[in-house]
Specification:
six-stranded antiparallel barrel; Elongation Factor Tu (Ef-tu), domain 3; six-stranded parallel beta sheet; 2 domains; Rossmann fold; 29% strand; alpha/beta
């Protein structure tokens, strides 16, 4: 997958089949769009292109209201890795600024989709809007396509058990600790990627190596305080792990995120210092609001470890 952070970096793309959006979570609805994008590109001997934006538009347009407390399912690195797995050919990450937000839907189509990318077909999700004040939609694209010579296709809304899938719905499930529901919407595990930093003094389970996994972006959505079953991807190695998510305390390593992620390996190889790991979340084992270190805590965590060993295969 080719990644561009500026329109001027984009080289010639053959028979571009394009979609746009933030694609936070790269959930099952997003995958439906990307799969269709790839099939069309294959049929016309073309290449698939996703235009996305960073930071999230709401963070720029409404910093004190809708964007202030907006937490995202994926960090930028996580989203790129998830998109890479879809088989996408080209990812264009446009820096979203107040100036860029003033571009009309007409100019977005004319200057970017047509003049720069020479789009042959544009694929959009259900009820997709774009451009200044969200004035562009499927019908607008369809009409302009007649003039500029590109086709447009709209993908129906995806649903699971009669519930429509959206990034907003997934964020709500995660904030409630409903990991399995969120995973069903995502069509993959909710994940956290970061560098495993050895804990100098394991206060959780003495004798078992423990790690902090610092959150690399302040706006990354972290589930509520509790104990979670995870699988740990460490290079080619996969092992079982227990994650404790809690509020930050004074003795924790420095960081800007209000929550802390602590990792204990239940079985398998332990990460080496500062190894980048991926934590795939399977289930919340239990809530844990009143965090403390005590002999009773250790007994509970030992019991949690046994449950995780039986849960993850």
């Amino acid at each position: 997958m080719n990644i561009y952070h500026d329109l001027d970096e984009v080289s010639a793309i053959k028979n571009a089949v394009v979609t746009t959006g933030s694609f936070d979570g790269v959930h099952i609805g997003h995958k439906s769009i990307l799969n269709r994008l790839r099939r069309i590109a294959h049929d016309i001997n073309g290449e698939s292109v996703l235009i996305t934006f960073h930071p999230h538009p709401r963070k720029v347009l409404y910093p004190e209201t809708a964007g202030k407390n907006l937490f995202l399912i994926n960090s930028q690195i996580e989203k790129i890795e998830l998109l890479r797995k879809t088989g996408l050919d080209h990812l264009l990450i446009i820096p979203f600024t107040l100036e860029f937000s003033q571009i009309s839907s007409f100019d977005f189509i004319r200057k970017i989709l047509v003049a720069r990318l020479h789009a042959k077909k544009i694929v959009v999700g259900f009820n997709h809007h774009f451009g200044h004040n969200q004035e562009g939609d499927y019908e607008y694209l369809f009409q302009l396509g007649k003039y500029h010579g590109f086709e447009v296709e709209e993908i129906p809304e995806q649903d699971i058990e009669n519930e429509s899938v959206s990034s907003t719905r997934i964020r709500k499930a995660l904030l409630e600790g409903k990991i399995q529901r969120a995973n069903a919407y995502l069509d993959h595990f909710y994940l956290i990627m970061g560098r495993a930093v050895p804990s100098p003094a394991n206060r959780l389970l003495p004798g078992k190596p423990a790690f902090f996994v610092p959150i690399e972006e302040d706006c990354k959505l972290i589930p509520p305080s509790g104990v979670y079953a995870v699988s740990i991807l460490n290079g080619q190695q996969v092992s079982k792990g227990m994650v404790i998510i809690r509020k930050r305390i004074e003795s924790d390593p420095p960081g800007n995120h209000p929550q802390v992620v602590e990792l204990v390996t239940v079985n398998g190889d332990n990460p080496t210092a500062s190894t980048r790991v991926t934590l795939n979340f399977h289930k919340q084992i239990r809530e844990w609001e009143d965090f403390s270190f005590s002999p009773e805590t250790e007994v509970l965590l030992q019991r949690d470890c046994k449950e995780i060993e039986e849960l993850i295969f």
